[in-house]
Amino acid sequence: MNAMTQNELHTLSNSHLDALEEETIFILREVAAAFERPALLFSGGKDSLVMLKCAEKAFGAGRLPYPLLMIDTGHNFPEVTDFRDFRAKELGAELIVRSVEDSMKRGTVRLAHPGESRNVHQSVTLLEAIEEFRFDALIGGARRDEEKARAKERIFSHRDSFGQWQPKAQRPELWTLFNTRLQPGEHFRVFPISNWTELDVWQYIARENIALPSIYYTHKREVVDRRGLLVPVTELTPPKDGEQVVLRDVRFRTVGDITCTCPVESDAATPEQIVIETLAADVSERGATRMDDKTSEASMEKRKKDGYF
């Protein structure tokens, strides 16, 4: 009886993942059909790698109909950017990288002080890339379960000619019918894995045997405990006076700019072990790991209105 129950649960899980995969593939194909100059935002993180796997299934390896776009703060984890380059080359995909540092040189981004996180300033560089390449749709890996503002997002999220998101002007998406009409200068952000959860992502990674950057799995790292977050000790994030540096077994639930992304304590070395940890988690990825989401000035909703992902 127990074995039968396990089998039934396994079948149910696969059925659920099949439905999510099918929806994602449909959306990816819809973007290719509806827009002239789309691009897929690709950071090398787990969500974009899951999306890339679905794109492979949608179009075939080496046949992606749109380029990959990365907005680089210059402060990304090298394990992630190295994996990004490897995966793009492996797929034979065009990879476009635009840097916040270049925006700083142009004077379109000005930091309040040298140690300020560049994460929020990605909006400027992204909008500059959209103008440079005249992108009319950007495919992103955001999910509704990550954060409250993202829960408000449509799958096809309309952005005005300033790249801004207007939450009260979202278009209805009944019966999987997407309104893709655009006025000159406008574009869409499209989120094919909106309906996935963190647990779904890890179950899919396990099922499809998707390779990830090593920092997603347990490894030893020097950290300091700062307001309940394990801040990694790096040249960009040194310990403050009085803080004690400790060596912990950690992994990253999400990856981003070094200056605002924290690991969690974990000894999970495989996707299956992470699935078990995720089942027991009572704090979202961003809530547990992102320093920049802790202040109202850097709230996700404000950043999205300013053109953020």
UniProtKB/TrEMBL annotation:
One Pfam family this sequence matches: PAPS_reduct
Region (Disordered): 286-309
Keyword Disulfide bond: no
Its EC number(s): 2.7.7.4
Keywords: ATP-binding, Nucleotide-binding, Nucleotidyltransferase, Transferase
Top-level taxon of origin: Bacteria
Broad enzyme group: transferase
SUPFAM superfamilies (UniProt xref): Adenine nucleotide alpha hydrolases-like
Entry GO MF terms: ATP binding; sulfate adenylyltransferase (ATP) activity
Positions of the Phosphoadenosine phosphosulphate reductase domain: 38-262
One GO BP annotation of this record: sulfate assimilation
Family: Belongs to the PAPS reductase family. CysD subfamily.
PANTHER family, per the entry: SULFATE ADENYLYLTRANSFERASE SUBUNIT 2 (PTHR43196:SF1)
Name the record gives this protein: Sulfate adenylyltransferase subunit 2
